[in-house]
Write a structure and sequence with these properties.
This protein is an all-beta fold and 389 residues long. Among the domains are: 137 residues, no CATH class; 99 residues, Lipocalin (Beta Barrel). The protein is 2% helix and 49% strand. β16 and β17 form a beta hairpin. The two termini are 27 Å apart. The N terminus is likely disordered.
């Protein structure tokens, strides 16, 4: 029995995908050519049911900082088809999903999965790069080894509307396992009639053109080009294209994006407090000891019920404080996970500096799960999990 998948996080959402061949009720379509529904977009005529009994609908929860989130559960059936008089759901074609707003690490972000409330703590990620590929409109290529994320060349248009014979625009999208797209698209423009000033830095300080009206003539060449760029980027995701040939093959120099590998979550409410040097407190079955509090560092030890001890120095690198939330390297300095993976303690950096008056403010979670890319979902091992962003 082949398993499937979980996903999403930027707009924070998760999806547990089941990759067994199931018979069920769904809109009928054509069987996926490769047998799997992974990274297949929804049908244009897909049916939508606004609410389902047993799932979460418009749940309101607050984060550590008091920001209210509205959460909804959902079940998705994708790429189903009719065979031998039955409606078949292909591998990775059935999943349960929940979606919330933009999320922030260490803010006790609430999210539900199949009706159960979880609190998202922090994530880890990797950089995936694809280089030197040729794509046609409609092509989808994978960007990681397990084929849970990829790039789609969604559209390719000529700029004949503007009277430019060889200017072309290609639009790329990041495709998730669920077939949904990353929240932004990546348009690039190339051709001899497209000025690349926006990409090569020529416009950084503004153009040399005079303020006000200028009549295009042979010397200023203002009527010969459209402005565009062969580079498109949003956050840490980017596309670089070299050319689009006469056969509409798009020659891609590089595609790059970060993708989540681990998502630490818990069903338990966190234990928060301010502690002096030598303090100890309980979280679930574990004991936490606080030692050697400094100006911006503290030593935290977690003792499990079994007696196993995990000790780590937690600190904030003040030189890189502005990168703290975005940088996985800086975030990793702010928390410790017990050896059995069930307890996590982090500096309470959301309200501000957790070090004050010789004390430190900490947040601790019990019943932690590490949702890894491709790991079993703890409460139902028929499903695989993929953090998705």
């Amino acid at each position: 029995m082949k398993k499937s998948t979980l996903k999403n996080l930027g707009k924070l959402s998760l999806a547990l995908l089941l990759a067994v061949g199931l018979n069920g009720v769904a809109s009928a379509g054509v069987a996926p050519a490769d047998g799997s529904a992974a990274m297949k977009s929804p049908a244009a005529n897909a049916a939508v049911v606004a609410k389902l009994i047993g799932l979460v609908n418009n749940l309101h929860e607050k984060t550590m900082l008091g920001t209210e989130r509205t959460i909804n559960d959902g079940i998705v059936i994708r790429q189903s088809y009719i065979k031998d008089g039955k409606i078949v759901i292909p591998p990775e074609g059935l999943y349960t999903t929940a979606r919330s707003s933009n999320w922030y690490p260490f803010d006790n972000e609430p999210i539900t999965m199949a009706g159960k409330l979880y609190r998202v703590i922090v994530d880890r990620y990797v950089r995936d790069v694809v280089r030197d590929v040729v794509m046609k409109k409609g092509d989808v290529i994978t960007s990681n080894a397990d084929k849970s994320r990829g790039w789609e060349l969604s559209s390719l248009e000529g700029w004949t509307t503007y009277g430019l014979a060889d200017g072309k625009e290609a639009v790329f999208k990041v495709v998730k396992t669920t077939g949904n797209y990353y929240g932004a698209s990546f348009p690039v423009k190339v051709g001899t009639s497209i000025s690349n000033d926006a990409a090569n830095g020529a416009l950084v300080n503004g153009s040399k053109q005079p303020v006000g009206h200028t009549v295009p003539d042979e010397t200023n060449n203002l009527s010969r080009f459209d402005y565009g760029s062969n580079v498109a980027s949003v956050g840490r995701t980017y596309v670089v294209v070299d050319k689009i040939d006469e056969q509409n093959n798009v020659h891609v120099r590089e595609l790059g994006t970060d993708s989540c590998t681990d998502l630490f979550m818990s069903t338990a409410r966190p234990v928060t407090g301010t502690y002096a040097d030598g303090a100890a407190f309980a979280v679930g079955d574990a004991k936490v000891a606080v030692k050697n509090i400094g100006k911006d560092s503290v030593e935290v030890s977690i003792t499990e019920k079994s007696g196993a001890v995990t000790t780590k120095k937690l600190y904030i690198d003040s030189k890189n404080a502005k990168w703290l939330m975005q940088s996985m390297v800086e975030r990793d300095k702010c928390y410790v996970v017990s050896k059995d993976g069930k307890t996590l303690v982090h500096l309470n950096i959301r309200p501000g500096n957790p070090f004050k008056d010789g004390k430190v403010e900490l947040v601790a979670y019990s019943d932690v799960i590490d949702v890894q890319n491709g790991s079993d979902w703890p409460t139902d091992t028929r499903f695989l999990a993929r953090p998705e962003t």
